[in-house]
Structure formats: C-alpha cells, structure tokens
Amino acid sequence: MAPPCSSALVLPCLLVIAMAALQSAVVFADTVTAKRPLSGSQSALVSKRRKFALGFFQPENSQHWYLGIWYNQISKHTPVWVANRGTPISNPDTSQLTIATDGNMVLLDNSTTAIWSTNISKIASNSTVGVILDTGNLVLADASNTSIIHWQSFDHFGNTWLPGGKLGRNNKLAGVSTRLVAWKARNDPSPGVFSLELDPNGTSQYLLEWSITQQYWTSGNWTGRIFADVPEMTGCYPSSTYTFDYVNGENESESYFVYDLKDESVLTRFFLSEMGQIQFLTWIYAAKDWMPFWSQPKVKCDVYSLCGPFSVCTENALTSCSCLRGFSEQNVGEWLQGDHTSGCRRNVELQCSSNASVMGRTDGFYTMANVRLPSNAESVVVIGNDQCEQACLRSCSCTAYSYNGSCSLWHGDLINLQDVSAISSQGSSTVLIRLAASELSGQKQKNTKNLITIAIVATSVLVLMIAALFFIFRRRMVKQTTRVEGSLIAFTYRDLKSVTKNFSEKLGGGAFGLVFKGSLPDATVVAVKKLEGFRQGEKQFRAEVSTIGNIQHVNLIRLLGFCSEKSRRLLVYEYMPNGSLDKQLFDNKKHVLSWNTRYQIALGIARGLDYLHEKCRDCIIHCDIKPENILLDGSFAPKVADFGLAKLMGRDISRVLTTARGTVGYIAPEWIAGTAVTAKADVFSYGMTLLEIVSGRRNVQGRRRRQEQQDDGGAAADRPFPLVAAGRLVGGGVGGGRREELVSAVVDCRLGGDADMGEVERACRVACWCIQDDENARPAMATVVQVLEGLVEIGVPPIPRSLQFLAELADQSNYLQFFSDLLPSN
User: 608 with 714, same domain?
Assistant: First the structure.
C-alpha cells in the first residue's frame, strides 16, 4: 500500500495541511476557550471581519494594564469597553483571559488570582467559549452553538454605547439598568462619578447624573424621531444613514433604546467623557480622528460638581476649575490629570470649629462678584445684610452667604459655583465666602462692612443719576419718542436726523444700507443704520425689532432703538470705537492685531453665533458672516453685527446676497446649489472668516490685488489662502517642527511668527472643518467653541473640493462676477 502522501502528492498534501492550520487559526482568532486562553504576551483576539479587537492595553500616559475592547481598523487606539476597570493588571505577560472550570470567563492576574469574571451561575463546566463579535460585543456563548449567549458585554456598558447595544432599564427589577459610566480620568478607566441612564421613573428620556443621586441634564422625551431637548440630532445624520428605535416595555421585561447604522463603513459611538458630557462621535477616515457632532450639556460648567467642593468653574478659561481664595487642591495628582472632582480644601480651618479665636479675631468673609450661585441654599428671614452675615457666623457649618434683598446661606461643601464675569453680567450675583481670620488681611476684614455699605450707597446714587439722565434725555426728545416692549426706544426720523447732525458722519455701509455716527442727548454715542429696500409694514417691523431687541449676548451688537415712519426704517445700535474687523485686519497698517487678540476675537465670534443658533427661542441664521459684519469695542472684544437683519428681511436671502457683492468668498456651496440652507451655512462663512483672521489677508483676491502684493514685496498669493492652510494641515501632519512651518506659512507675516503654535494649529483645523463641502461634516458652533477653548480635540480635516475650484478661479480677473452670476436675481 502506498503511504498516505506519496512523492507525487507531497505538494497537495502540504497545501491541505496548511489550509487546515489556517482555518483552525481563523476559527480561534476571535475565540477564548479553556484550552486556548488569551495571554498578555500574545496578540489580541480579532472579530471575524476584523472590526474589533480584544486584548491587553495601557491607557495613554498610564503605567497600568487592562483587558479591553477597541476598534481594530482605525489608527487611533480607542477603547470602548474595559473588563477590570477598577483593578489594573500587575503583569500582562503572566495574566490571561480564560474559561474557568465553572464555565465562566475569568481574568487571572499572574495566572492565579481572578480579578474579573462573568459571574454567571448554572452553567455546565467545559461547555462555554468567549467570542468577540464584529459589533464590539464580547459574549460568553455555548461552545456547541455560539448563538446561545449566557453573558454579553453589551449588558455591562463602560463609557461607550455602540450601535446594536440596548441602553435601558429593567421594568421588573427596580434600580437595574444598563447605564454608561464615565472614566475617572482620561488615563484612568475606573468608574467615575458621572453616569447616563434611561429615566428609572418610566419616561423615555435620558438623565445625566452625578454619583447616581444628582441629576444635571435631561434629553427630553423621545418624539419618535429625536429627543425633545436635543434638536441637533436631526443634523448629525440623515435618516437614511441610521435608525434609532425605542422599545417601550410596558408589557415587557425591559425598556430600551437601540440604534444601528445602515452603512457599515460608518463608525459612530455615544461616549460619556470624564468631564461629564455625553458626546456623539463619528470617525472621519480622511482626518484619521473622531469628530464630535454634538455634546450635552453644551456649557461644561453646567455639569454638576465638575470642579468639586470649594472650587469655581469658569466657562471661558482653558483651565475651567480653580480653587477659591483660602483653599488649595484636595488631590494635586488628580488635578494634574484633569480630574477636579475631589475639589479643594481649606488652608486654615475656621475659628468657629475650634471654639477659639486667634488674637481676638474671628472668621471673616471674602467677596466674590459676578458668580452664578449654587442652588442648594437655605433661606433665612432677616432685615439686612448685617443680619445675614451674623446668621452665617452663628452656625459653624455655614461656609458662605449671599444677600440680595433676601438672605441665602450655604452649609457644608460649596458646590457648583460658577464665575460668569467673562460671559455676561446678567443673572450674576455676589457671594461671600467664609474664611479664617488669618486668610484675610486686617484691613480687608476691618472694612468689609464699610465696603459693602459704600457699595450699596454708590449703587443707589448711580441708579438715581441714571434715572435723572434718562428723564432729561426723554424730556429733550420730541413727544413722539416712545418706549416699546423691552428696553428699546422708538425714535422719530426727526430725532435721528438731529442726533446724527443730518446724517453727516458716515461710518460705513453694505447691502442693507448706510451707517452714520450719532450722539444722544445724554452723550451716548450710537451708530444709526438706514435700511434700504425694506418693505415690511410698520406693525410687523416693530414686532420683529422688539424680538431682536430682547436678544442680548456679550458678543452680539446691542440694538438700542429704531425708527419706523412711512417707508423709513432705521436701527440704532451701540457704537463700536474700533470699527469693523476688516478695517483692523486689512487696512490698518499702523496697528497690527496681536495673535492673542485675534484668537479671542475668533472665540468671541463663535460664542455669539452659538448663541444665535442654539440658545435663542428661535434659531437665527445670520446669513452674512464676514469681517465687515464683526465690530470691535474699545478693548477689541468682537460683536457680531447685522444678526437680526436676516430675520427682519424675512429670510429673503437670495435678494440680499445678489446685491451683497462683498459676500463672495464666504458663501457656502449650498447657496450656489440652490438647496435649503441651515445654520451650517453660517459655520462655513465663519470658517472662511477665521482663516482671514489667522492670515491677515483676504482668502480670495483678484489679479490686481495679487499684483499689488508682489509689487509691495509681499506674498505672491498664487493660491487662495484656504487651500494653502488646508494643504499645510493635511500634507504630512503638524508635529514638532511641522508646527513651526505651519505658523510661518499661514500666520500674518506682520506678527513676525509671534503666535501660539498650538492655537494656530487648532484654529486652522477648526476653519478647515467648517468649510467642508458637505454641511453634515461641518461642526456645530457649540463644538467650535469647545475646540477653540481646548476642551475638545479634532483631527486633521480633508481638503474640500470647492477649494480646488477656487484655486483655478483665482487666476481669472472676473471671478467675482462669476460667483455673482450664479446667484438668483429679482
């Protein structure tokens, strides 16, 4: 008999053996068994279609090891689930994931101590396997039929909710739910204090909670399409891309939400950050990074106890948390890692607590103005401020008080104190923090009451003076001048003709009309805009103006009054001494805006637009963002101007843009395509404006202007600047010396390279994301604010196709007319 493999069949036999070995490897590439455990010294297990991996890993900037699941086919290591969150592995090489004799999947440290287990009872020994699925779900399944699942990681979420997972509650077992729990810090996956769960009281809304006890944000109930309080969900993806379903288990054992993506090439996840914000993220392959499409709550200081006790949260600061005066960090190491939840502790204990005083001095108070007060105050009935202070001093547990006609006391830890001085003074209050006498200077302690008394007297005098001036002003105005709803003044045309000296001093003009400088009788300098081509009736005009007049934000120009007589329509604004941004960027050769000023201007514009888009009762789309419509006050703080004109004009934008020739270069592609326009059109215009703020020159320039630059020895400007900036970002990355190259290539040469490299890179990335051709790829303005503040990281954007078109068009002297001809005309 011939041997099993004769010489003629050696090669075929070897091929069969090799294929069998390969098949065996594939079978067990995604599976853990008792005989084939996963050790830290081995490669990770990979799901069948190689979407997810299961293995041992170290978080960034961490010395600890964990067993977890991460995306296998993207360049950025992104864990989505961790088994041993609170118990790191001491040595991954001697640790293993295996199937125990009782059928459970266990993680053994040093191959002996079980530090994690699926902990399922009533499983037959040697009958189960562990499998990592292409959904990112790790399952403990029956060895003979893996469709029979005994345990799954989708029932034990970490900080990430993946498509296909059910995030809900058990209707039969109170308090049992599949909730998201944030990491403690960016490099520490142990359970933090922030969590997200479906309302245990039976509604269809999600709750963000601190320590499971304190609710600080709700999604609003499910409408069948979106959550009521998350309207931006409609802008993340079209309904043809994803499905989002709610199963209301009135007659079932559970109620839950589940979402799935119809396009398997799209990677998306809901993620609860260590800062207490829920984020919706999508992987952008071209940028090789995650892109946030929305996050809640938008204001990070609205996250409960984000900064811990005796700390203040400042929304506009890069370091949002800081200790109050007289306090220092409770845990310096945690603060350095970005975890501020431990808060701050007193430097010197209160004298009341020791029933003694130091050299006859007792506790005193430090005054903090322009703050938003915590809500857990105790109200005390007193006559005045002195009695309120004494009420706090009489209680050893009282740590702060506030008096504003009524007395509020805080006992124990002072949590959720917010500094709002950089945002707006509206709604702000003054709080007095109780400190030991040694923490206060003798002079300050001695004069605290006097200062408060003086402040009250000065405020009263100021109010009386303002009232007197207003009375004089009103008397000097003609009788027809009337006050409308809110604080707007209805001027007559004769009034405004007088205050502008017959419209003699022109400040500027645009598509909506000319602007003149004026001075009211009380010496208040104003800017008066004469609207042109405005056909709305007086009643409608007054109603619209009244609405706009009630919109106030530190980065929006303030409307003071208006005039509506027959066909005349005028608006009266506060006066901005430093004029429009374009004058400072392009025409002012004597004064060059510093990089820090430019960056703050960019951030302020973003905040103003975010307010218009998200925080007004009705979303207001500006429709004409450009440097000419950004005004600067005496300290160069930006104010978005003309934001109400889109609303006043009834959104008849085609006519407005047809006459607004200066807007060419800021128009989003959807304008030209004739499709419906959303707030993302403003995002595009903002991105183009941001690039001009960085470079100090126009994005697109005609042949004549380019020749003038060459004659002046400046840049040739042979390509539009947005294409230059995008090319520098995409072309090889921006690390190390690449950042210096980016600064030298894109920042205004007049600054001599004096710019923060990290901020330049951040600004260019934001701008290039904003000008993407697809409006769904552009971030919301709330995200732009968070990125510029350094709270959210974004990747390198792809180069928009429209920029290539601009590059070709820039060589033509008639490109402005070309764009204008594309726009519809009336």
Answer: yes
Rounded CA separation 471/488 (Å): 15
pLDDT value for 99: 94
- Same domain, residue pair 418 and 491: no
Residue segments in the chain with a per-residue pLDDT below the cut of 50: 1-28, 235-240, 354-360, 442-447, 476-486, 650-662, 702-718, 732-737, 808-826
> Is residue 298 annotated as involved in ligand binding?
no
Alpha-carbon span 121 to 654, nearest angstrom: 68
541 and 465 share one domain: no
- Kindly report, residue by residue over 35-89, the tens digit of the pLDDT: 999 988 677 999 999 999 999 999 988 889 999 999 999 989 999 999 999 999 9
Q: How far is CA 9 from the centre of its chain?
A: 67
Triad 223, 607, 552: Cα angle to 5°: 85
582 is catalytic: no
Alpha carbons 43 and 46: distance in angstroms, whole number: 9
- Nearest CA-CA partner of 217 in 204, 235, 205: 205
For residue 209, give every residue at least 6 positions away whose Cβ sits within 8 Å of its Cβ, in sequence order, or none.
194, 195, 196, 197, 215, 216
| Candidates 339, 624, 682, 748; catalytic one | 624
Three-state secondary structure of 151-197? EEHHHCCCCEECCCCCEEEECCCCCCECCEEEEEECCEEEEEEEEEE
Any domain includes 721: yes
Element (H, E) at 739: helix 737-746
Contact by Cβ (8 Å): 493, 502: no
Predicted local distance difference test score (pLDDT) of residue 104: 94
Flag whether 714 is in a domain: yes
**Closest among 643, 502, 493 to 562, alpha carbons compared:** 493
Looking at the structure, do residues 497 and 418 belong to the same domain, yes or no? no
> For the chain, how far is it from start to end, CA to CA, in angstroms?
97
Q: Which two tokens stand for residue 644?
A: 């109400």
Residue type, 339: D
Q: Is 303 helix (H, G, I), strand (E, B) or coil?
A: coil
How many CA atoms, within 13 angstroms, populate the side-chain half-sphere of residue 196? 29
Domain boundaries, position 490: 477-574
Give the angle subtended at the CA of 708 by the CAs of 704 and 765, to the nearest 5°: 90
- DSSP bridge pairs for 572: 528, 561
**pLDDT tens digits, residue range 108-129?**
998 788 999 999 988 887 889 9
Q: Give the number of other CB atoms < 10 A from CB of residue 798.
A: 18
- Which of 574, 592, 608 is the last residue before a domain boundary? 574
| d(C-alpha 758, C-alpha 735), whole Å | 10
The residue among 626, 505, 671, 511 whose CA lies nearest residue 575 is 505
> Within this chain, do residues 325 and 450 fall inside the same structural domain, yes or no?
no
